[in-house]
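Worked example 3. Consider a protein that binds zinc ion.
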Amino acid sequence: MSIKNVKYIRIFDTTLRDGEQTPGVTLTVEDKIEIAHQLNNLGVDVIEAGSPMSSDGEKKVVKAIAKEGLKSEVCALARATKGDIDKAIDCDVDLIHMFIPTSPVQMKYAVNLTPNQVLSATVDMIEYIKRHGLKCEFSPMDATRSEMPFLKQVCQAAEKSGADMINIPDTVGIMIPKNMSNFIQELKSTIKVPISIHCHDDFGMAVANSLAAVETGASQVHCTINGLGERAGNASLEEIVMALHMIYKIKTGINSRLLYSTSRIVSTLTGLFVQANKAIVGENAFAHESGIHTRGVTVNPLTFEPIKPELVGRKRKLVAGKLAGTSGIKTELEEIGIKPTENQLKEIVKRIKDLGDKGKMVTDADLLAITSAVIGEVIAEEKIVDLCDLAVMTGIKVIPTASVRLVLDGIEYKAAETGVGPVDAVLKAIQKLTRNLVKISLKEYRLEAITGGSNAVAEVVIKVEDDRGNVISARAAREDIVMASVEAMINGINKCLIKNRKQVNKK
Ligand code: KIV
Ligand code: ZN
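Given these inputs, the predicted complex is written out as structure tokens:
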């Protein structure tokens, strides 16, 4: 699909502003600067760095980002008041994004202004920004719930006052693509200034609505990494960009190969997990389990992959599970240098399916354990890292602390760490000790009690990712939660190291 005369769409990233408004997310100055650099490398056209009016700290961050000398334009958000705009100007940004509500409900209950007051504040404040020689992007907030004649009047006044871009916010995400197309078309017939689109995901249609706006003439899209943002979030940058590149054949400034690493950095710094089935950046976005799929992609990736994983910085993953097929499991084992015979492979597949039928998640550790049992090698027993001893301390007035002694490749080391609880402390101590062998990050930690009561057996399932992008799952079950966590972590690290070393040997 192509859109006549549209060659390039600008990407306005608001991860550091609307994204930071995600409930529960607060970023430090260092976090925001790190994300700004990543967005700059990714190639976004604009970085909305924050809202200087909200606090002195926020103003300092926006100013600091503006000073970084980034290629992307740096933008600050301001309400239509002199106080807010002066604070944004003070930050030396390239661009001010000024907003004021235009819907009846928000004019009355959010800012208590009459339509005439909204109109005159729009004109006065855009002129004020322009007199200071800055670019101005204007947002009539809640545009999609505004009365069209009034919205047109405000947009025309904004254009006349010198706004460089008019951004249309679907603030509470109530549009559907067809309505969005009509809406943008109608505005296009009244204003000449470029139109941008800003969609929220309350009904899960932020990306579809943004693309509908592009189809009818919007030349810029507001979006966030991982779809972060107020309530259900904003349109997700990675989905918008890949749809523009691959479905519409329209260019953006984005280097798509950095999408996954950017998503990981944002997820780590915000502490917000990305759902496994999220398009492009979710854990399962390039994972195949069922036999027909794994066989298909092994023979020809085009069978079940609309996007080449490398294009977004990912790797294909074939998953062992009850739906797994022989060829997928064979490929997975070959990846780590194991070549079972045909009969052995049949037995491995059968045992994996049996495990899956019992409702068990089949981890990489299970695959190795089953394989080792079937082919008689002690693959899963190989221990590059082993536990000698550990001690944990916790209490009401005590910072949870753990000290750990490990044997790494035959040599003993020890380390201590603190954490939010004993498990956090002990896992951090292990990661500290093993980071010279392999850098891993804990992606998932699940605790399940297998039997009832306070003496229940606790099963810990973890997922770790090493710096080569290998994701390994491991589990351990013990009556002691700390011990189960430690064992699962050490199992995971051993699996990563074995996989890493096999990959190196293969080259
Ligand atoms: O969703 C919204 O309306 C906003 C405005 C500040 C543009 O984020
Ligand atoms: Zn918003």
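Take a moment to read the result before moving on. Confidence is low (pLDDT under 50) at residues 377-381. The chain is about 40% helix and 20% strand.
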